[in-house]
Batch of 4 targets.
Target 1
Amino acid sequence: MVPPPPTNKPHACLSTILIMSSMALMDAYLVEQNHGPRKIGICIMVTVGDLCFLIVLRYVAVWVGAEVRTAKRGYAMILWFLYIFVLEIKVYFIYQNYKADRKSLDALARKALTLVLSVCIPVLFVVLVAIDHMEYVRAFKKREEIRNRLFWVVVDLLDVLDIQANLWEPQKKGLPLWAEGLMFFYCYILLLVLPCVSLSEISMQGINIVPHKMMLYPILSLATINVVTLFIRGSNMLLYKDNRVSGILMGKNVLAIILKTCSFVQYRRQLQSAPPAFGLELQKNVQAPKGRPAQVTS
């Protein structure tokens, strides 16, 4: 195995601590939801699982710390995928235990679960992006533009988590079984894939990053988050009389649809006006090599 380049140890330690602390909190929920001998078995199982995950995390986190000052975020995408994959499996079992025990209306514990996920998941994404460590982005304006675009990713993560939290927080009338399963796994896929898309855009742009050309994530999130979650909340409110539907986040989705659509239209206009200038630059680049051989032969 090729040894990693010098790593940023504080960054690697921060991401590891954040991941393992959130995993430990999920383990505490799983253990407390069981009783008797089953509780001991669950405790042993989650401990062994966390130890195996920590062994894998030890190597991946080192490579994440090594690439933090570069334009690459490949290992950050791997770490994000592993983290969400394992975390959401634990969240699924917690949600199923709450669903099986309808008499347990511990609203505080359920709200605390939502709070933990709403803090740990977006914070880890911000840590993996590590804008402040992008030494190749020297212009303050460009760095702030990147920060503003990544802020949309954080808001979208909170939006998805709010939809998912409706499944375990107390509600007067439950959704159909098929709707609950579809909603959970749809949110699961969004949490897995969309942040990786944003990280991949940063990697593909390289050291000459141009924030206004990072249009893949806005287009995907417009369709898969803003439109779909607006439909989900509207359906829950109208069909199932769910009074916990967030009107604020519905308004956020409407504003996001308008703003992202306007941004996409402006980007298309820029592309249509770009070819003449691009052609001139291309012509200069083609003519330059033709002049060089003439100088050499003389």
Target 2
Amino acid sequence: MSVLRPLDKLPGLNTATILLVGAEDALLQQLADSMLKEDCASELRVHLAKSLPLPSNVNRPRIDLVVFVINLHSKYSLQNVEESLRHVDAAFFLGKVCFLATGAGRDSHCSVHRNTVGKLAHTYRSPLLFCDLEVDAFRASLAQRLVRMLQICAGHVPGVSALNLLSLLRSSESPPPEEL
């Protein structure tokens, strides 16, 4: 078991690989299925993990994008992501990591506040997406967006890099919580 590094494996030819990390197996599987239905010029690979680190004895491809999924209805989900973040190399945070908060639609049932997740994303200088994965239309829209982000992070979109994408996503965000 080791730290996940962005360039520890050679890239596959015309292959893009995303790693979804979260405690909600059923929701992650539904999101993965939605992503695989999307039209993609590259061969799309979706890997699921409850937490990091990944086992070192498994032969896995290079990971192009890591998505940490936090269910706002579960403090365990947030704790799991926070513990997993320790196993990610700092170079991954240069545009190859994003956070996804799900369950924000029912605010009264949330046990994790949105600001907590926002501060976590701000701390790691990574984009934060909100989506209710239980709603098919929202999940399909998010899958489309993640596939496009993945293609960029894998280097399959000419003239756009993961850092370009990060700067575009960061400039469209609201100011950090401490500036409000």
Target 3
Amino acid sequence: MEFSLMGLDTPFLRNLQHILESTDDNTTGNKSNNGGPSRAYVRDARAMAATPADVKEYPNSYVFIVDMPGLKSGDIKVQVEDDNVLVISGERNREEEKEGIKYVRMERRIGKFMRKFALPENANTDKISAVCQDGVLTVTVEKLPPPEPKKPKTIQVQVA
């Protein structure tokens, strides 16, 4: 897809398009031959691009909503890295093939998925909950209470 044709020609989208179009034919290690991104970086970028999410801000919390159809809670991992990065990841595996049954069409996505979100300063990383219901993962991050305003300090004036 050519983003410039849609009027969305930004450096970010150009880099994303370049990453997604990179080939995986590199067998000489983790670094690409043309000085481009590593295979691991390309894999992670694809996993992130293929995992859409909604983020809502409420007065007392942030809520991250990610579609996870067909996954069990054991297939999903929710972590906090570097004290302020929420990472939602997991893997969807292919069903084991049974004898006498073959796929006519296979469209459902399999493989690893991941999303990373930079949390705001007022996010309380000690109060995070995650619930997966009906194929929708909802991660709630509570907000820290606002700091109390400093009271003005009164300095007594002495008579000289």
Target 4
Amino acid sequence: MEPQAQGLLETQSLHEADEDVVTDVDFTTMISEEEKEELKIELAKLEDEISTLRQVLAAKEKHLVEIKQKLGISLMNELKQNFSKSWHDMQTTSAYKKTHETLSHAGQKATAAISNVGTAISKKFGDMSYSIRHSISMPAMR
């Protein structure tokens, strides 16, 4: 089929502008009275099912809270457990392990470098101290 001849058989999804046009179209004239009645019945069933599911969910959430209270599980305990589990899960990832290893290695290198700088500074101060003591003990020749 050619793109122009497709008409109602287009398979492309609607864009926002198209949705605005669709909402302006009156579909009630395109379907029969029998189909309207079937759709109304289906709509009522779906609304009823959704309402029932909401009631069931609310009852289950209430039951969940009651069980947690009986077990002494508070929101703070739950948050601590979730945080601990998340922290453990993160530490076991390969990305964390690689990053930890790299930063640890970099830290060791930085420590060694700082130690070398400290040693060099100490040596320089020692040399300066020796130089000052030596120049004080030996008067300059005139």
